[in-house]
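Please produce the structure of this protein holding NAP.
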Amino acid sequence: MILAGATAVVTGGAVRIGREIGRHLAKAGVNVCVHYNSSNTEVAEAVEEFQAFGVRATSISADLSLPVTAAKEIFDHANQALGTVSVLINSAAIFETGRLADTSEADWDRHFNINLKAPFFLTQSFADQLGDQDGHVINIVDWRGEKPIPGHAAYTVSKAGLVAQTKLLAQELGPGIQVNGIAPGAILAASGESEDDFQRRAKLNPLKRTGSAADIAEAAIYLLKSEFITGEIMNVTGGQQLS
Ligand SMILES: NC(=O)c1ccc[n+]([C@@H]2O[C@H](COP(=O)([O-])OP(=O)(O)OC[C@H]3O[C@@H](n4cnc5c(N)ncnc54)[C@H](OP(=O)(O)O)[C@@H]3O)[C@@H](O)[C@H]2O)c1
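Below is the modeled complex.
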């Protein structure tokens, strides 16, 4: 795909990994609709920062725990503000601890709505507004989605679903739309995780270091530029999925 002049929606694009992906897209000449939930201050900074690269940028707040309503709101706004969207980055997610015994139905539903059902209906809205034009979806998954380990039950199963969804929709939406996933490893400390614990976790991968949000954004740019990759999950983990 030729990036300059394209238009993207980035969910969870105000902060952290989503923000870095938006920054790389804007630098590459892509107009960006930044979706956010509660990061009001950061989203205003993100829009200003992206516009400074000479692209158009806008923002829309929507709660992805109401996936169908949110998908409609996001694409209504993006289409009205920026025109047809040809890139969808599903980055927004929640990540909470829990095992079988202490996961409530509400925990399960929250993870599945935000992490899996929202990307599904966002992709539906994305494909609808694209018609027969070409496009690209990137789902930010997790290496745990293909190599589950106990500790984050609802999160891990929701990300495993998103891996399956990526491979399924790559088949349904070809030849016009490519659908790929990026599986980050230890990139940024989770909310409530100390820097020491994060660094200890990073030592579990063969490269024995953390990655950066830029590593994920660069992988996204690589996939978006590719013309012959679809249904692929790219691990950006320092090899953590091998351990
Ligand atoms: N950080 C890592 O090292 C790592 C590792 C593996 C996988 N990942 C995956 O990479 C992606 C980005 O990770 P991150 O750590 O940068 O993300 P994050 O900070 O945990 O969250 C990303 C965004 O999700 C949005 N969000 C949360 N609940 C929402 C809701 N109900 N409705 C709408 N948006 C909601 C938040 O938006 P607001 O801020 O606007 O509220 C938040 O900014 C996620 O999919 C994550 O699972 C990250």
